[in-house]
């Protein structure tokens, strides 16, 4: 959850620096995952109008865009495609420095010079949207050449990205976080301005509300708003939403999102003209009912789910004709959404059963900001206050808005806060610190807990917004946790467990860490690419092959388990290259998958009732893939990297052996297998990325080579197949050694490493064999080559004489002859 410091400061006075506030929030259990400064680095960005879009010959991923930024036409190469001629977009001219220190320079792509950059919201640190350019037409009344910070009313701000735990429903809002800060800092909590009904006409004369299933919907409030005009939100409202990662849509919708973020109460505005009888009712969905939600997807309701205890129960909002308008607590339907023609609005604010919302959201694969809050538990008493705040925000853009008196308010069944007995001894036993009863009471009252003294202890009742506080012994622990948060986790004494630390790394885990440390130490940057990919991405390397598909993916475009990490890493490098940071080495430790029908030995398990079925599972293969993209990187660079990895990990003898069957994704002729000589196992492959793949997923020039190292960690981490060199060290002889040079003419099919190993094993006098020359050309048959070795001979107890050296030479020549090598 992203929260603006400026927004927090409206609720509580904050004099501390962002770094100090981050430490305080962390200590309150509101862990700050990141801090982002927005509004800086945008001074040079201007509003530009797209005048013309032209294709670039030979390029299908980028286009030439001509824009006007107030000083004549400017040509810019752009890869986005979400805009058309006439759109207004942000433009960073040459020399501009964007957030993150990225400097815009003149670049030449596909033979065309780009004189600036058109920007997305994420590139400007204004949103997380990176699917295309930031379109300004609907956000402001754009003017060509105007500074973006002026047009969007942007002021520097700090955004805290807070990870809210599941047991803190009250903290899913700006006010909730501010309340914790106010209690910790001992400062008053300000309340936002709330509107009052502006009409004497009562809401019941225009609308009606009812709850048919009170256990499903605990409260339903409906406010009637008349004289509505659908227009863009005021810039400050749009900026607040953008800072929280939400896209402004219109004033009516934005006010709903604003209140949800500020107070934690989701609301939903309905176009009253599209609601039969101006009636909203909450009930369970019936089997066979359908709803087309705002995202355009038709959903079948009341169908049993796969989750434990999920009977298929859905809560819905219906109108006077019993037509389903929305999925309660999750998303509204398209049939009653707000449009430019909307003049009357029915504003719904409700309390829904958290577990019903959670199961519905999971079953339909539909997560929304509203469901995130409802499934954790929204304050049942908050709805009227949220409606009043909604009207106050909407009146910023519609001053003549009419809010009818006596909003409809229907109650069902809501949770009753428990009363829990707590004393100082309980707190000391759990936290290890002695606190006076008065101090405990003061801390809890600061969080709006009702506290009553009873004998030596306290009777504590949580506020209605704290639905996470349980009853009995568990509730006592919840209350003491609140005391710990406000007292300060850092102030609690450190205590070491009396028992020895259990567990430890397995041999495989320890070896994997060694591999990671070595690869990163050699300059590789560890990356993560998606495990779930699209069919199109899978087909880039495995077209026509059966694939492992997830039946309930979060996204239909990411439903296939990857069979290789090469595509993902190459694409990731391509994105870096497009941003001018392609001089990198990327690596990834991950798992790839193979359909059981393609596996030589499918994984089998027992399943079905009583384990009567034999099921075949996908094969999972852990791999390390490294893509080398530094200047002049190629297959030789990859081999050099492998030599360094092999040497540091102490492998005994791995041969880089040519292969005629390169795996998919590797260069068909510049690839070799890594073979352990002792076990014969293939540890992986080294070479280059297939240039066809590079062209398919990146905009890199056709001359770009990418070195590649792809290791099968299931083999590489198995000491039975990846032989480790003996730790025993043989002291060198103190007697002089003799070195002879031998050059052999061999068939090209003979691996030089195999020949060197044959020479090494031919005589006990051989101390070392080193390849120093390879020759092909004039004087040799076309199918042969010459390889030359330095061979060092020595004995442990004496200096070799000429006769011994000569005899050893003959032995070496004979050993080479067994492989078809002839002395040159």
Note down, in words, how this protein is organized.
Helices cover 25% and strands 27% of the residues. It contains 20 helices and 42 strands. Strands 28-31-34-38-37-36-35 form a seven-stranded mixed beta sheet. Strands 5-4-3-6-11 form a five-stranded antiparallel beta sheet. The longest helix has 16 residues, at 472-487. The mean pLDDT is 92.
Keywords:
single chain; 824 residues; 20 helices; five-stranded antiparallel sheet; alpha+beta; seven-stranded mixed sheet
Gist?
With 824 residues, the protein is α+β, with helices and mostly antiparallel strands.
Helix content: 10-25%
* Total number of strands: 42
- The strand line-up of the biggest sheet is 28-31-34-38-37-36-35
Q: Would you identify the regions where 5 or more consecutive residues have pLDDT less than 50?
A: none
Number of helices: 20
Q: Choose one word for the global shape.
A: elongated
Radius of gyration: 35 Å
| N/C terminus separation | 74 Å
Q: What's the pLDDT, averaged over the residues?
A: 92
Main beta sheet, described?
7 strands, mixed
Helix and strand composition category: alpha+beta
Tell me the strand percentage band. 25-35%
Which helices and strands appear, and what pairs or packs with what?
Elements: E1 2-4, H1 5-9, H2 18-27, E2 31-38, E3 46-55, E4 63-68, E5 73-78, E6 88-93, E7 97-98, E8 102-103, E9 107-109, E10 112-114, E11 116-118, H3 148-151, E12 157-163, H4 174-185, E13 208-211, E14 217-226, H5 235-243, H6 251-263, E15 267-271, E16 279-284, E17 290-292, E18 298-300, E19 315-318, E20 324-327, E21 331-332, E22 344-352, H7 354-363, H8 369-374, H9 383-394, E23 402-403, E24 408-411, E25 420-422, H10 424-431, H11 437-446, E26 450-454, E27 457-461, H12 472-487, H13 507-521, E28 525-526, E29 532-533, H14 535-542, E30 560-561, H15 566-578, E31 585-594, E32 603-607, E33 613-617, E34 619-628, H16 635-648, E35 654-658, E36 666-676, E37 682-689, H17 691-697, E38 707-712, H18 713-716, E39 738-747, H19 752-762, E40 766-775, E41 784-793, H20 802-817, E42 822-823
Parallel strand pairs: 13-16, 28-31
Antiparallel strand pairs: 1-12, 2-12, 3-4, 3-6, 4-5, 6-11, 7-8, 9-10, 14-22, 14-23, 14-24, 15-22, 16-19, 17-18, 19-20, 20-21, 25-27, 26-27, 29-30, 31-34, 32-33, 34-38, 35-36, 36-37, 37-38, 39-41, 39-42, 40-41
Helix pairs in contact: 5-6, 6-9, 10-12, 19-20
């Amino acid at each position: 959850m992203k929260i603006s410091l400026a927004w927090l400061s409206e609720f509580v006075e904050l004099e501390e620096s962002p770094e100090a506030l981050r430490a305080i929030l962390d200590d309150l259990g509101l862990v700050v995952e990141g801090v982002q400064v927005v509004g800086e680095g945008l001074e040079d960005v201007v509003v530009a109008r797209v005048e013309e879009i032209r294709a670039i010959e030979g390029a299908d991923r980028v286009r030439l865009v001509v824009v006007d930024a107030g000083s004549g036409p400017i040509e810019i190469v752009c890869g986005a495609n979400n805009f058309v001629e006439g759109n207004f977009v942000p433009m960073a001219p040459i020399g501009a420095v964007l957030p993150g220190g990225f400097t815009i320079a003149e670049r030449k792509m596909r033979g065309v010079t780009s004189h600036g950059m058109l920007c997305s919201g994420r590139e400007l640190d204004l949103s997380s949207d990176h699917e295309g350019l930031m379109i300004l037409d609907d956000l402001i009344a754009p003017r060509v050449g105007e500074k973006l910070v002026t047009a969007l009313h942007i002021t520097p701000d700090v955004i805290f990205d807070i990870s809210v735990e599941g047991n803190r429903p009250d903290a899913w809002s700006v006010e909730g976080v501010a309340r914790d800060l106010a209690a910790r800092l001992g400062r008053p909590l300000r309340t936002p301005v709330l509107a009052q009904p502006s009409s004497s006409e009562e809401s019941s004369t225009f609308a009606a509300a009812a709850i048919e299933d009170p256990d499903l919907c605990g409260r339903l409030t409906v406010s009637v708003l008349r004289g509505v005009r659908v227009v863009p939100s005021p810039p400050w409202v749009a900026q607040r939403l953008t800072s929280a990662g939400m896209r402004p849509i219109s004033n009516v919708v934005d006010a709903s999102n604003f209140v949800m973020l500020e107070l934690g109460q989701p609301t939903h505005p309905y176009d009253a003209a599209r609601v039969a009888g101006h009636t909203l009712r909450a009930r369970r969905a019936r089997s066979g009912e359908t709803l087309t939600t705002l995202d355009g997807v038709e959903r079948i309701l009341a169908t049993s789910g796969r989750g434990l205890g999920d009977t298929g129960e859905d809560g819905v909002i219906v109108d006077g004709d019993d037509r389903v308008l929305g999925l309660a607590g999750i998303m509204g339907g398209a049939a009653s959404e707000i449009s430019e023609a909307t003049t009357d609005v029915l504003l719904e604010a409700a309390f829904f059963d958290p577990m019903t919302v959670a199961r519905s959201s999971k079953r339909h694969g539909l997560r929304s900001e509203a469901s995130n809050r409802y499934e954790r538990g929204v304050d049942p008493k908050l709805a009227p206050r949220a409606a009043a705040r909604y009207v106050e925000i909407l009146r910023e853009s519609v001053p003549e808005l009419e809010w009818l008196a006596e909003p409809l308010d229907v109650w069902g069944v809501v949770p009753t806060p428990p009363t829990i007995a707590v004393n100082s001894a309980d707190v000391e036993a759990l936290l290890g610190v002695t606190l006076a009863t008065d101090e405990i009471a003061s801390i809890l009252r600061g969080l709006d807990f009702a506290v009553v003294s009873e004998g030596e202890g306290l009777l504590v009742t949580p506020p209605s917004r704290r639905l996470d506080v349980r009853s009995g012994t568990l509730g006592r622990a919840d209350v003491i946790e609140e005391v710990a948060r406000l007292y300060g986790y850092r102030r609690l004494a450190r205590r070491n467990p009396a028992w020895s630390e259990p567990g430890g790394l397995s041999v495989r885990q320890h070896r994997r860490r060694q591999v990671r440390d070595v690869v990163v130490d050699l300059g590789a940057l560890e990356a993560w690419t998606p495990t779930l990919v699209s069919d199109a991405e899978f087909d880039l390397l495995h077209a026509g092959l059966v694939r492992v598909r997830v039946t309930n993916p979060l996204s239909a475009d990411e439903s296939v388990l990857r069979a290789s990490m090469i595509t993902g890493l190459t694409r990731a490098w391509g994105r870096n290259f497009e941003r001018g940071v392609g001089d990198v080495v990327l690596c990834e430790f991950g798992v790839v998958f193979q359909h059981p029908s393609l596996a030589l030995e499918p994984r089998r398990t027992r399943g079905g009732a009583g384990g009567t079925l034999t099921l075949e599972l996908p094969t999972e293969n852990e791999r390390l893939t490294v893509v080398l993209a530094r200047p002049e990187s190629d297959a030789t660079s990859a081999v050099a990297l492998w030599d360094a990895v092999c040497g540091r990990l102490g492998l005994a003898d791995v041969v880089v052996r040519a292969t005629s069957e390169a795996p998919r994704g590797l260069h068909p002729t510049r690839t070799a297998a890594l073979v352990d000589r002792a076990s014969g196992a293939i540890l992986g492959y080294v070479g280059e990325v297939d240039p066809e793949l590079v062209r398919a997923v990146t905009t890199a020039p056709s001359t770009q080579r990418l070195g590649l190292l792809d290791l099968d960690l299931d083999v590489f981490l198995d000491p039975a197949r990846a032989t480790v060199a003996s730790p025993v060290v043989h002291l060198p002889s103190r007697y002089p050694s003799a070195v002879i040079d031998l050059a052999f003419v061999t068939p090209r099919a003979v691996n030089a490493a195999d020949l060197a190993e044959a020479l090494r094993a031919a005589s006990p006098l051989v101390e070392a064999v080193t390849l120093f020359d390879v020759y092909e050309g004039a004087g040799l048959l076309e199918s042969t080559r010459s390889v030359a070795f330095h061979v060092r001979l020595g004995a442990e107890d004496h200096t070799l004489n000429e006769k011994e050296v000569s005899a050893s030479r003959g032995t070496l020549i004979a050993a080479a002859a067994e492989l078809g090598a002839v002395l040159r």
